[in-house]
Design brief:
With about 425 residues, the chain is an alpha+beta fold. About 70% of the residues lie in helices and about 5% in strands. A 4-stranded antiparallel sheet has the order 2-3-1-4. It is elongated, with a radius of gyration of 44 Å. The two termini are about 35 Å apart.
Amino acid sequence: MELTEYLKIINQKKWLLLLIIIISIGFSIFYNEYIKTPEYMADGKLLFLEDSGKKELIDLSVQDQMLQSFAKSDPIATQLEIIKTRPIFMEVIDKLQLKNEEGNLISPNTLKGMLSFKPIPNTNLISIICTNKNPVLAAEIVNTLIQVFVNKNKSFNRESAGEMKKFIEDQLVQMEQNLTQAEEALVAFQHKIGSISLEDKSRQNLSVLTMLKSEFVTVENDLQGLYAIKESMEKNISQPNARSRSLFSSWKNTLSRVNTEIDELRAKKSNINKNINNTTALIRQLPPQQKEYANLISNRDIAKQVYTNFLSKLEDFKIQEAATMTNVKIIEPASVPSKPTYPKKIRNILLAIVIGILIGMIILLIINYFDNTARSIEDIKKVMPYEIMGCIPYFNKGSKLFIKENPYSIPSDALRFVQSNMKFN
């Protein structure tokens, strides 16, 4: 069928089509007002802060920086996974005593179905949305969830700082022993030998050697940390279905950066080792007693410098632990919505109009398919294998002398046209 034929069908049955559309709109209005229970949507916003304070407080080693870089690869996705964990949902349910119709506490999956989490593009913000039939409860759920998550984040940061503090305290014990032993060895040597001094050039070489050894220890520690990160990334990438994980690209990028950093540190370590060997060769030219004295001073200075650095880090972690800092900030708490979000009345009515048109068209096509009534000359030509002599419009003839009484009417002209065609054919 051509478009004109469809339009013709619509024109013939337009009142039926209009009736179907009106019925569809009526049903939509009835559904909006009496069937669908209004639902309210409350939303709050969280900001995930960059962990810049830690870098200012602590002289981060390379592995710390790489770990921090890895954490930044997809911070919002990580925090979203944390906020959707079962323990956080359970705490929200317990605090608000969320119950079902049977009077039992709802499950975490039920609460999860009420919530949606939407990262705001190009920002570190996420919007937490709760949909519920009770507007007050919807706002309470969002605000309680946000508060529980912030408290968990504070607790986690406090525990992390506490763990690092304990680790450094344990290391400080050994470092303090090393420093004490180095100082005692130096004092014992001085008591044994008596007064001894080094030339200015030797002191300069010793200072350079101490600096190089300290830097060598730092680079070696950084390399060990990078090797640990590399092993972790390779393990993640080798997991089954790793390519389908959202963090796969971040793992690959981090592994690439780690490998580059390892190559750079290896080259740096080799260069430092070469300088150490050169400087050590100069010190070895000293007399035996001065050489031993120089080594003792170098060991003491290195132990003192490492001990001082770790002591400074310990104080920094004590500050972090006491401050209970969090990297999550509440930007906008949820407020009680004044208007329901669902049902969307205008959208439902427009959708009802579209559905009414579609259903109406289907009904019209079905009626037209089963309707055998001839409604035009073309329809008659398709059925009757005869020539058409003419077309006489319907009229109320009134009397048998219609033509005589109405000689100039359209029906009279049509009858005369048919009569002429019959004479000539």
